[in-house]
Amino acid sequence: MNFDFGKVLTRSWQIIWKHKVLWIFGILASCARSNGGGGSGGGGNSGYSTGPNGQPPFQTDQLEQGLEQATNFLRDNLWIILAFIVGILLLSFIFYALGMMGRIGLIKGTFKAERGAENLAFGELWSESLPYFWRIFGLNFLLGLLVFLLIMPFVVLGVITAGVGFLCLLPLLCLFIPLTWAAMIVLEQVQAAIVIEDLGLLDGIRRGWAIARSNIGPMIIMGLILGIGGALVGVVIALPVILAVLPLILGMIGQSESFAPVWITLACCLAYMPVLILLNGIASAYIQSAWTLTFMQLAGPKENAPVLIEPNA
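Now predict its structure.
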């Protein structure tokens, strides 16, 4: 099939620029994107040290006392800890649900805009997206669960073998990365099929898989364009944050005891945060719109199916 990449990429920008309400759904869609959970910075001396009299720095009775205090704290404040855990889980669900609604709204909005809609209202898109929520939510949940089940054996083996298992499984892990990338490309087609053609979960999976399998070349190229392009845009968007952290890094290198670098970094990051959220939303809206138009073009014209509309000169 002759796939017009330029038309899809250009039309995606025209749609989200004309219908800026899609930026809001892009911001919502960003809530469901996986964020790298920053690693812990465990500095300090990791070697074994002794006390002033050659005794271990932590006596056995001190360790037992600390464990007893921790146990008492957990027992006395169990309801607080459980409430905190439930609150975190509930908050995670809310953000993930908003992310799913954002994706659905972007697909629905792009579809309507390409079918000739002159105006897109947030409330209308939101209400029209609700019927697809549990289907899209279930789809992403199943994919996430599958990835978790595939990764866990590697993690357990690596822990049991003190890291040696990770080295042995490195070739498989390298293979896992492109497979995950391919699965995400198919996921985009499945989501578009469910929303645009109003399919059930299983029918949507079959339809999305059929589209992706029949158009492997365009799928790979579009995935590379949006993946690499999105990564570059992400670096550019995050560049001010990196620059804002420089005073803090320089202060740490110079072993400065002043808190001025900390306050400067914090103030710069807080000032840039609204811009960062907006730019991420626009980028998410563009990428989702491009994937939706990709499905619309590859699905081909048929009864009640959308056809790409040429933009007005």
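The chain is about 75% helix and 0% strand.
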